[in-house]
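Supplementary Note 2. Why include the ligand at all?

Several targets in our set were suspected to adopt different conformations when bound, so apo predictions alone were not considered sufficient. For every target with a known small-molecule partner we therefore ran a joint prediction. The input for zinc ion is given below.
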Amino acid sequence: MDCIFCKIAAGQIPAKVVYEDEFCLAFHDIAPQAPVHVLLIPKKHIVSAANLAEEDAEIASRLLLAVPKVAKLLPLEEGFRVVSNVGENGGQTVPHLHFHILGGSKLSAVMA
Ligand code: 5GP
Ligand code: ZN
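The joint prediction is reproduced in token form.
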């Protein structure tokens, strides 16, 4: 599978991992857009939120449930933002579903 995030999930490309369970992996973004910028991915290759299917119900819930766990580990108790870019117009550059978890400072209210 020629996918950067699948390779990170398989340990073939190094990443600064902050959280891992059976379904998900969270690691620091290589080009942080905020003081804390972590990417949370499913270990299964799913292209984007637009490609989630009924059979992914457990993965989808596990991903959301991992958000507070990652936030606690970083820590981000003063708040954070969760963003998932989808497709061309959404600005997605890596076609493997991921949530950006951003924080560590007061973020701008405007979404680009
Ligand atoms: P997107 O633009 O698809 O929403 O987000 C992709 C993110 O993946 C970007 O923020 C980019 O910096 C990050 N990224 C791309 N390649 C790598 C990599 O090899 N390692 C890590 N840790 N992050 C990456
Ligand atoms: Zn992948």
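Helices lie at 4-9, 57-73, 87-90. Residues 4-96 form a domain with the HIT family, subunit A fold (CATH 3.30.428.10). Comparable summaries for the other entries are listed in the accompanying table.
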